Amino acid sequence: MEDKENNGRLKKTSFLFKLGVALILLSFLKWGVLLYVPFLPYSGNMKISIITVLLVLAEITFWVGVFLVGEETYKKYKYYFNPINWFKKAAKEVLDEEKRELNAEKTADITDKEKSDIHKKEISDPNYKEDR
User: Fold this and answer.
1) 71 band by pLDDT with thresholds 50, 70 and 90
2) pTM of the model
3) How far apart are the C-alpha atoms of 86 and 18, rounded to whole Å?
4) Contact between residue 47 and residue 38 where contact means Cβ atoms under 8 Å apart
5) Cα→Cα distances 80→36, 48, 87, 104, Å
6) Cβ atoms within 10 A of the Cβ of 24, count?
7) Residue 29, number of CB atoms within 10 A of its CB
8) CA 124 to chain CA mean position, Å
9) What is the mean pLDDT of residues 63-91?
10) Quick one: angle between helices 44-69 and 15-33, nearest 10?
11) 3 and which of 14, 17, 26, 93 could share a cystine (Cβ 3.0–4.6 Å)?
12) CB-based contact 50:37 (threshold 8 Å)
């Protein structure tokens, strides 16, 4: 019972959690080994059998590993390793930087007198909004 937290999930430092991660990594290694099977000096039927066994074992070890690490960890790593999500943060930062530069250019073009005139208009009319 010491391997579990209060909510019944495995701790990330427990043996079963580490075993689950190792099984998931091992399943990916089996997929990599599949690339070398066609170059082995066996007959065609033997190569097909080896590929079939490796595919089945890779899937079994993957899903046993997912069961051991838990659903939340699986979803977290699934999101992390999805190539679609790799550039979202970088793209957002680039867009934010471009917006800041555009705003800086707009405010740099306005003279101090214009700024004071805009400020006076904003004070006198709260609904006033000038397109800049």
Assistant:
1) confident
2) 0.54
3) 25
4) yes
5) 28, 33, 11, 34
6) 21
7) 11
8) 49
9) 81
10) 160
11) 14
12) yes
Answer for the pair 46, 38: CB distance below 8 angstroms, yes or no.
no
Number of domains in the chain: 2
Cβ pair 68, 18 in contact under 8 A: no
Q: Are residues 78 and 99 in the same domain?
A: no
CA distances for 123 relative to 13, 75, 117, 118, angstroms: 60, 51, 10, 9
Residue 12: per-residue pLDDT? 67
Q: Which of 44-53, 96-105, 115-124 has the lowest mean pLDDT?
A: 115-124
Q: Is residue 4 part of a domain?
A: no
Cα 24 to Cα 42: distance, rounded to the nearest angstrom: 28
What pLDDT is recorded for position 29? 92
Cα–Cα distances in angstroms (integers) from residue 126 to residues 99, 106, 111, 112, 116, in the given order? 25, 21, 22, 21, 15
Point out the least confidently predicted range of 2-6, 12-16, 65-69, 114-118: 2-6
> Domain range for residue 47?
15-82
For the chain, the first-to-last Cα distance in angstroms comes to 64
Q: Verify that 33 and 72 share a domain, yes or no.
A: yes
